[in-house]
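Trying the structure run again after the queue cleared.
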Amino acid sequence: MCGVVGYCGLGDSAPARASVLRAMLGAIRHRGPDQFGVYVDGRTGLGNARLSIIDLGTGQQPISNEDGTLWIVFNGEIFNHPELRAELEARGHRYATSCDTETVLHAFEEFGPACLSRFNGQFAIAIWDTVGQTLFLARDRLGVRPLFYAQAGESLVFGSEIKAILAHPEVEAQADPEALDEIFTYWSTLSPRTFFKGIRELPPGHHMLVRDGRVSIEPWWELDFPEPGPVRSAEDCADELRELLIDATRLRLRADVPVGAYLSGGLDSSTITAIIRTFTSNPLETFSIAFDDPAFDESGFQARMAKALGTNHHVVRASHADIGRIFPEVVWHAETPLMRTSPAPMFLLSGLVRSRNFKVVLTGEGADEFLAGYDIFKEARIRRFWAARPDSKMRQELFSRIYPWIAGLTQGTSNYASAFFGMGLSETGAPDYSHAIRWRTTARAKRFFSPGLLERVGATRAPGYPEGFMGWDPLHQAQYLEISIFLSQYLLSSQSDRMAMGHSVEGRFPFLDYRMVEFCNRLPPGLKLQGLTEKFLLKRVSREWLPPEITDRPKQPFRAPIQRAFFGASAPGYVDELLSPAAIREAGYFNPRAVEHLASKLRQGHAHSETDDMAVAGIISTQLVHRQFLSGFRPSPPLDAADDVKLVAGAGASLQD
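Done. C-alpha cells:
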C-alpha cells in the first residue's frame, strides 16, 4: 500500500522537477512513511510514498522493466500476483524484485491495458512509457484506492489524495458549489466530480491515457447485474459462495507483515474473522470500536465473538468528546464535507491498529451492498408492496420490523409512516425509487445554504444509469445505486481508505473480491433478500462458523453520535468559532441566521431531527474544509535529506532543480 503522485506535460511545459514531486509526496507521507521514490524524464515525473507490506527489502518504487523503457508507481495490492508472476516468467519476463508492483509492470508490458482484467486486487496505477511517451493511469473496479487529477497550466497533475495535487505550485483550491449541492443530497459527489473545482477523480473501473497532449478516459470494467443463468438450488449457490469467500480471504492474508482483522460483532466481519481462524493456524489479533453511548455500542457482541474465536482482541473507546476532538483531523484526511461523523471512530480504530504495530487489517465491507444487507433494500420492497396494495393493514407492522426504534409504527394509524414512507409511493417506475426518500431527507439540509450559493447552484445532477438499468429487478436497481454512489464514493473513501491511511494502515476486503462481486450480481434476488430477511445466502453459509446470536441478530447500521459530539459539556472549542456569524459569512456557503438558530437549538439540547444532525455535521465539515484547504492551504513539509528517497532520472533528465 502506498501513495502515488506525478505530472505529465500536455504541451510546451517546463521539465519535470524533483522538488515539486518531493513537495507532493510530503503532503501524503502518511500513506507510505517507509520509503519514497522520485522519477523524472523530460516533462514527466512520478513519485511514490511506500507502506512496505510485500517484499520489504527490494520493493522500493519507482520500478522499471528489464530495459528501462517502462516505469511504474503503484498504490495497492494485487492479491493473485504469485500466479501472474509464474505466467509472466514463463513468457520470458525477468524480475528484479519479488513485489506485486513489478508484476503489474510486466503484465502491462505483455498485455497492455487488457492486463487490468487479470488483476484480483485494489489499486491505482501510473506507468510511464519512455518510448511511446505515454502516461497510463488506472483504478480498480470499485474504487477501493483513490486517484485524482487536474490540469495545471500545460501539465496534467495526479495523486492519491487531493492535498498532493494542491501541493503542485500551479494548482489553486477553489470550491465547486454544485459539488456541495451533491454532497447535501447523496452524502458524496457523483464521480468524477470532487468538492474542488477542476480537480476530478478517475472513476472506478476506468483507465486514462495521456499521449501527444491529449487525454482519453475509458471504462475497463462496469458494474452489471446480468440475468441469472440456469436455475440452481440454494444449496449449490451457498457452496459456491462459501468457497469463493474462503479463497478471497486466503488471498488477502498474503503479506510479509502481520495481518489483523476488524471485528464489529456483526455478521460480515465475524464471518471473515471466523474464516481466518478456521483455515489458518496463526494467532489472530482483532480490533473494534466501543462507544460510550449505548445507542451506538456493539461491544458486547464483539467480546463474545472474540472469546468464541479465540482472538487476541483490542478495543478503542469512542466518547462524544473523542469524536468532536478528532473531527478536524478526520476532515483533513477525507478532503470533503461529511454528512455523518461515522468516519471519526474509524479513524480512532486505525490509530489503535497502528499503535499495535499492524499495517494490514481485513474487514467486512461490501457484504451489505452485494448481498442486500441494508434496511434501504427492505424499505423499498415494503413501499412497492404498499403501492400495489394501498389498503393493506400490514405495512405498519412491516416497517416496524425494520425500524423498531421509530415510535408509533406498530400503530395502524401512524401518520409518520404515511407522510414519510409514502413520499413518491406510486412512482415505482422511477429509477431512483429505492433511494429517493433518503436523498430528499438529506437535501432538506440545503435550507441552510446561503442565497449566494443557491444562485450558483442549478438543478441537482441526477446519477447516471447504465444501459439496461430499467429492465433490472428492483432489488438490483437499488443495489446499483447503493454500490456506485454510497459504497464507491463515500464508504470506501471517506470512511475507509482515508481513515485507515491517515494512520498508515491498509484495509483489505474479501467481500469485494471481483469474483465475489460478479457471483453475487448473478444471484437471483430471492437468495440475497428473501422476504425481509437480508443476506439470506450469507447467513446460510455463516451458520457453519458463527453462533445463532450473530447470524440471526438484526442488522445494526454503523453510526456515530453527532449532536453531543459538538454541543454540550464535551463540545470542542472550534465549533463555536466555525459556526459564528462572522465565520459563516466569510466562507459564504451558508445562511448565518439559519445556522445560528440551528446551533442554538442543539446547544440547548432541544428535540431535533436526523436532518438537523446531518445539517450540522455538513456545515461544520464544510467550514473545516474551507479553513483547511481554501483559506490559505498549507501542505505538509516536502521530503528532505532525512527521508529514504530513491531518485531516478530518465535519459537527459536532471534531478537538480
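The mean pLDDT is 94. Worth checking whether this holds up in the mutant runs.
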